[in-house]
């Protein structure tokens, strides 16, 4: 059983649609990170959320950390083909630089 | 800055062969790590280092060795390759600050390894 459950595992939608993906756990975390990974490349950090209930925006991407700091969501408004990629969430386990990762949501935005 | 570099990009081995995956970073980061990425399983930590001369095991260390003689380099050695080690391997580095907002991990482009 994964410590972090990401859903859905796969999502394919048309350009212009909105979508939300989730990262859930039964454990409480001090912080949570979202990364995006494009094919053939390593993951790249999008955001770190620290405070329960925190909302951060990155252009058309909105990230929220759950009030109890057990889960997080990523909402994309008016998705574009450039948003295509694998979205990964990660949390610190043993220390702030040792991360546990979810399996990811593979997102495809069709033109 | 080149960031984190990895070589080779692709590698095919036969069972029992050995090889070293190279990783280097030019950001003067203290912390470096190796992950493997398999479909449906996310990234799993193999070994990590908190500074030159210091290494420790992660979640899946069996079959792999590491060393850290300099801040810049962190090679991963497969002593006797097995088909179960077929995977994509990523090296990452980060600043060793204790703040939650200072632990961004910077990844290399990965090495795709196939063991026959």
What's the overall average pLDDT of chain B, rounded? 92
The whole-angstrom Rg of chain A is 13 Å
Distance between the termini of chain B: 36 Å
Outline the low-pLDDT stretches of chain B. none
List the chains of the largest interface with their residue counts: A-B, 25 and 30 residues
What is the end-to-end distance of chain A?
A: 36 Å
Question: Which series of helices and strands of chain B comes N to C?
Answer: EEEEEEEEEEE
Total count of strands of chain B:
11
Helical percentage of chain B: under 10%
How many H/I helices of chain B? 0
Order of helices and strands of chain A: EEEEEEEEEEE
By secondary-structure content and strand pairing, the structural class of chain B works out as mainly beta
Mean pLDDT rating of chain A: 93
The main sheet of chain B comes to: 7 strands, mixed
List keywords for this structure.
heterodimer; A: 111 residues; mainly beta; 6-stranded mixed β-sheet; 5-stranded antiparallel β-sheet; B: 116 residues; 7-stranded mixed β-sheet; 4-stranded antiparallel β-sheet; 11 strands; 50% strand; globular
């Amino acid at each position: 059983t994964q410590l972090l459950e990401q859903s859905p595992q796969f999502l394919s939608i048309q350009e212009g649609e909105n979508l939300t993906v989730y990262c859930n756990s039964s454990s409480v975390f001090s912080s949570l990170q979202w990364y995006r990974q494009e094919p053939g490349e390593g993951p790249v950090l999008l955001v770190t959320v620290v405070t329960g209930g925190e909302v951060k925006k990155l252009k058309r991407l909105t990230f929220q950390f759950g009030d109890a700091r057990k889960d997080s969501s990523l909402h994309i408004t008016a998705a574009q083909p450039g948003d295509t990629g694998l979205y990964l969430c990660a949390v610190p386990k043993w220390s702030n630089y040792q991360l546990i990762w979810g399996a990811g949501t593979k997102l495809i935005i069709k033109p | 800055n080149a960031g984190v570099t990895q070589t080779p990009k692709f590698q095919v081995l036969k069972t029992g062969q050995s090889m070293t995956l190279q990783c280097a970073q030019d950001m003067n980061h203290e912390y470096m790590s190796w992950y493997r990425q398999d479909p449906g399983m996310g990234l799993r930590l193999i070994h990590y280092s908190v500074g030159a001369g210091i290494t420790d095991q992660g979640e899946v260390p069996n079959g792999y060795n590491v060393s850290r003689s300099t801040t810049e380099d962190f090679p991963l050695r497969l002593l006797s390759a097995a088909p179960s080690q077929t995977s994509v391997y990523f090296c990452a580095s980060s600043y060793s600050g204790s703040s939650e907002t200072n632990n961004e991990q910077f990844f290399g482009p990965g090495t795709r390894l196939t063991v026959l």
